[in-house]
């Protein structure tokens, strides 16, 4: 007996399990890393603060690797299209904002840790991953360059945090106000 045509139609295309896992792991890492960065920079100079900066750098390199994996997955497994009804209900500016926000998020996934690495290298503090694996300097040691780079790590981190807030707000708007089920496409453990 053949299946009815309706049984093969999914209500909305979902992201792959790998995309979902990378999304949530990276989301948790970014929120944790941002909060930890705020905490550690508020501490007075001490051995603990130096240790925390090293942990922050390790986490930043981990975010960089996760971002590369996520981008590689996204390039080889395109995101599901927005449902036609959702696209039709969105004003043009929202569609533009949707795409611009996603592109900017992906760019900042790389910019924030790379600028942090460049600052650390220019300041003469190499990144030694987990205290065991020295990574190459991203730029040569140059104190003047370090002072130029330093604010850009903070600015880009705040920009990323702001875009994350916009992204979460948009997802909640789709779920709670539009009730179009878009958020369900990215939640783990849910099937069509």
Could you walk me through the main structural features you see in this protein, from its secondary elements to its overall organization?
- It contains five helices and two strands; from the N terminus they run ααααββα.
- Strands 1-2 form a two-stranded antiparallel ribbon.
- With 192 residues, it is mostly helical.
- The longest helix is centred in the last third of the chain and has 36 residues, at 143-178.
- The protein has helices at 17-41, 47-76, 84-89, 92-122, 143-178; strands at residues 128-129, 133-134.
- Helix 1 packs antiparallel against helix 2 and helix 4 packs antiparallel against helix 5.
- The chain has a single domain, classed as Fumarate Reductase Cytochrome B subunit.
């Amino acid at each position: 007996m053949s299946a009815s045509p309706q049984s093969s139609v999914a209500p909305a295309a979902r992201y792959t399990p790998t995309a979902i896992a990378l999304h949530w792991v990276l989301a948790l890492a970014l929120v944790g890393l941002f909060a930890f960065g705020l905490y550690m920079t508020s501490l007075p100079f001490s051995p603990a603060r130096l240790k925390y900066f090293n942990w922050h750098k390790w986490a930043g390199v981990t975010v960089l690797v996760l971002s590369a994996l996520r981008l590689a997955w996204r390039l080889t497994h395109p995101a599901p299209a927005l449902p036609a009804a959702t696209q039709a209900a969105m004003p043009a500016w929202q569609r533009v904002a949707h795409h611009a926000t996603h592109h900017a998020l992906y760019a900042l996934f790389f910019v924030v840790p790379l600028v942090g690495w460049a600052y650390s290298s220019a300041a003469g503090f190499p990144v030694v991953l987990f205290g065991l694996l020295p990574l190459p300097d991203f730029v040569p040691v140059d104190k003047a360059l370090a002072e130029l780079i330093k604010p850009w790590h903070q600015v880009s981190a705040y920009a990323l945090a702001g875009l994350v807030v916009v992204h979460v707000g948009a997802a909640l708007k789709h779920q709670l106000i539009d009730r179009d089920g878009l958020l369900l496409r990215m939640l783990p453990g849910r099937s069509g």
